[in-house]
């Protein structure tokens, strides 16, 4: 590691961290994240480049170094890069470490910021405008994490109740309903051309709705049949998978999950094989 009195340029550290991530070297990645934070504070008067920040956090996330991810995200915020993207990655770290209360609080703040960001967008902005795309991405990612926090809260309570729904506290049952609402709201607001973003909350909505019906947990609204939803999502993704999945292997996994919901076991196996064989799949994605 470089002399602590003369930190290396942050871009150089980020590039090396990307290499460590590609090699799945979590120990080296964590070591480099320590060096990155030292460099950040040494140059605190300079606002970090957003692309470098994205690289740092993305690399740590890909090797599941969530403690280092949260610390690096907080360091970025403290030196002036307090963006929705950075805060969302911090929330991801909290969720993965099981700190659900802190994660939900942070996500609530981000939901407010995203709503304000929408109000700032010009009314006539085109769908493919980068500003609109950035807002859509942030909305889906944050709402998806909200759904996941509520889902994990329910599953933790389910385990403590030994799988007996009657023994699960009402707030935990309500959390499963909130999870369904969060995933569903994003999926429903997605237009067909946004399927590359909306399929993630879509397949999670299907899973949560199915689990609620299986466990006889009341939901806050009436949803279509799971089979109907899974068919809709499967057909929409299947039309795009050959051109999109190379850059987004989650599509393979989602098609596999939708096939499971439809009890198409052979199709499910084939899609999951394609998923695990994809060069784009990282430890975070497994």
For the largest beta-sheet, the strand count, sense and barrel status come to: none
Helix content: over 70%
Mean pLDDT over the residues:
88
- CA-based gyration radius: 20 Å
Tally of strands: 0
Going by helix content, strand content and strand pairing, the class is: mainly alpha
Strand content: under 5%
Tally the helices: what do you get? 13
The helix/strand series, from N terminus to C terminus, equals: HHHHHHHHHHHHH
- Low-pLDDT stretches: none
Overall shape: globular
Distance between the termini: 31 Å
Explain what the structure shows.
Helix content is 71%, strand content 0%. It has helices spanning 10-22, 26-42, 50-62, 66-78, 84-96, 100-120, 130-160, 170-189, 195-215, 226-238, 241-244, 250-261, 265-277. By secondary structure, the chain is an all-alpha fold. The chain is globular, with a radius of gyration of 20 Å. Helix 5 packs antiparallel against helix 6 (100-120) and helix 6 (100-120) runs antiparallel to helix 7.
List keywords for this structure.
single chain; 286 residues; mainly alpha; 0% strand
């Amino acid at each position: 590691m470089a002399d602590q009195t003369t930190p290396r340029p942050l871009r150089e550290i980020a590039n090396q961290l990307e290499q460590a991530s590609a090699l799945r070297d979590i120990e080296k990645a964590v070591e480099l994240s320590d060096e990155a934070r030292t460099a950040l504070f040494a140059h605190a008067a300079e606002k970090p480049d957003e692309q470098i920040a994205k690289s740092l956090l993305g690399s740590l996330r890909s090797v599941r170094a969530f403690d280092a991810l949260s610390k690096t995200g907080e360091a970025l915020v403290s030196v002036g890069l307090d963006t929705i993207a950075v805060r969302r990655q911090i929330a991801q770290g909290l969720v993965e470490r099981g700190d659900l209360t802190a994660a939900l609080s942070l996500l609530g703040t981000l939901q407010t910021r995203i709503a304000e960001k929408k109000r700032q967008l010009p009314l006539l902005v085109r769908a493919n405008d980068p500003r609109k795309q950035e807002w859509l991405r942030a909305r889906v990612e944050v709402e998806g994490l909200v759904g996941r926090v509520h889902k994990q809260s329910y599953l933790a309570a389910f385990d403590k109740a030994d799988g007996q729904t009657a023994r699960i506290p009402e707030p935990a049952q309500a959390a499963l309903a909130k999870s369904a609402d969060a995933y569903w709201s994003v999926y429903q607001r997605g237009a067909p051309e946004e399927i590359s973003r909306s399929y993630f909350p879509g397949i999670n909505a299907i899973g949560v709705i199915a689990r609620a019906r299986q466990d006889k947990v009341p939901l806050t609204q009436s949803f279509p049949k799971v089979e109907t939803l899974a068919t809709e999502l499967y057909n929409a993704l299947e039309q795009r998978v050959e051109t999109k999945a190379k850059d987004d292997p989650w599509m393979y996994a989602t098609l596999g999950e939708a096939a499971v919901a439809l009890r198409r076991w052979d199709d499910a196996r084939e899609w999951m094989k394609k998923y695990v064989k994809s060069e784009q799949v990282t430890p975070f994605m497994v």
